[in-house]
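Subject: Sanity check before I submit

Could someone independently write out the structure tokens for this chain? I want to compare against mine line by line before I put it in a report. The sequence has 159 residues.
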Amino acid sequence: MASSLTARASWNVKRLSLAFRTSSMTTRRGFLAGAAAVSAGLAGCSSGSSDDDVPDDADIVVGPGGNLSFDPSSLTVSTGETVTWYFDSGSHNVSCNPDHHANVSLPEGAEPFSSCPADSPYDIKAAGETYEHTFDTAGEYHYVCVPHATSMKGTITVE
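---
Independent answer below. Compare away.
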């Protein structure tokens, strides 16, 4: 996936460079040609899927439509309930492991959980993957996507 995005980006840069070299940006026609090239270059960069692609059993959508968020950002469940995260866009993870980020916290006695290995907090999931965790301890869990922790935060309250 990453190599295809890199190749696409490289191709788009070449396309933009050619468009700017072959048109004068000082004319209306030149400006429109450049704008069309930019639009065409960005058209293939969307990575989110539609709501129709989200499985019915998904409780939380990770990166909905390519956004840096969890949807919903907070959820209340019962003790013993399993929560399923669906990765609508790639390059994200789910971590409620205090060793992974300072914004993470969990109730006393609860075991940390993460969609990535304990020793690889920046390990990410691809679009379309899922991650599940069963909550056995009541309390509030504050989790993050480690690569985007400043904006991707979520809370699960277990009653």
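---
OP: Matches mine. For the report I'm noting this point. The longest helix spans residues 2-22.
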